[in-house]
């Protein structure tokens, strides 16, 4: 590894662990997003998934060379509002506006929501908390049952 590889490796971790690149004005080592995406492609051969919160971020990610765009950050930034379910409008907007796969991610709690994301144009759906966090899942059931009484 050359000295120029060290900042990128420190920022992104080992090449096999490269999964996504969050939208940012520039990389931690001073590289632009375009330069960082190109370096990931060149140095690791890995695909780059840009976690985005808005349509503009998704468009910018594709312009920078991202291979996939996820809705992961929708509702989790200071300038987007959190919805109780997935941001299906953003999924649909991205699917129409960009020419790379859109990954629906974020607050997908039911099989019906996963299906809605596919119908909205998602290429794939990531389900996290709804299948990996028993405390949260139990809370959903307890809340629904309490509301039913």
Compact summary:
The chain is an alpha/beta fold. The chain contains 7 helices and 4 strands.
Distance between the termini: 63 Å
Report the principal-axis shape.
elongated
Radius of gyration, taken over Cα atoms and rounded to an integer in Å: 17 Å
Percentage of residues in helical conformation: 40-55%
* Annotation field: number of helices: 7
Widest sheet, order of strands: 1-2-3-4
Strand residues, percent: 5-15%
Structural class based on helices, strands and sheet pairing: alpha/beta
Query: What's the β-strand tally?
Result: 4
Q: Report low-confidence residues grouped into runs of 5 or more.
A: 1-26
Helix-strand pattern: HHEHEHEHEHH
For the largest beta-sheet, the strand count, sense and barrel status come to: 4 strands, parallel
- In round numbers, the mean pLDDT is 83
Describe the protein.
Strands 1-2-3-4 form a four-stranded parallel sheet. It is an alpha/beta fold and 149 residues long. The chain starts with a helix and ends with a helix. Helix content is 45%, strand content 9%. Strand 3, helix 5 and strand 4 form a beta-alpha-beta unit. The protein has seven helices and four strands, in the order ααβαβαβαβαα.
Question: Helices, strands, pairings?
Answer:
Layout: H1 5-12, H2 33-44, E1 49-51, H3 55-63, E2 68-70, H4 88-97, E3 102-105, H5 111-119, E4 124-126, H6 129-132, H7 134-148
Parallel strand pairs: 1-2, 2-3, 3-4
């Amino acid at each position: 590894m050359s000295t120029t590889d060290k900042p990128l490796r420190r920022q992104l971790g080992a090449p096999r662990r490269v999964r996504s690149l969050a939208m940012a004005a520039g990389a931690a080592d001073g590289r632009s997003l375009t330069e960082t995406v190109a370096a990931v492609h060149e140095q690791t051969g890995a695909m780059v998934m840009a976690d985005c919160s808005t349509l503009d971020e998704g468009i910018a990610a594709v312009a920078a060379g991202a291979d996939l765009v996820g809705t992961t950050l929708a509702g989790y930034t200071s300038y987007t509002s959190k919805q109780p379910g997935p941001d299906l409008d953003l999924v649909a907007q991205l699917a129409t506006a960009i020419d790379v796969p859109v990954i629906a991610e974020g607050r997908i709690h039911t099989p019906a929501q996963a299906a809605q994301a596919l119908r909205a144009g998602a290429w794939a759906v990531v389900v996290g908390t709804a299948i990996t966090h028993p405390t949260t899942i139990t809370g959903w059931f307890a809340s629904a049952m309490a509301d039913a009484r």
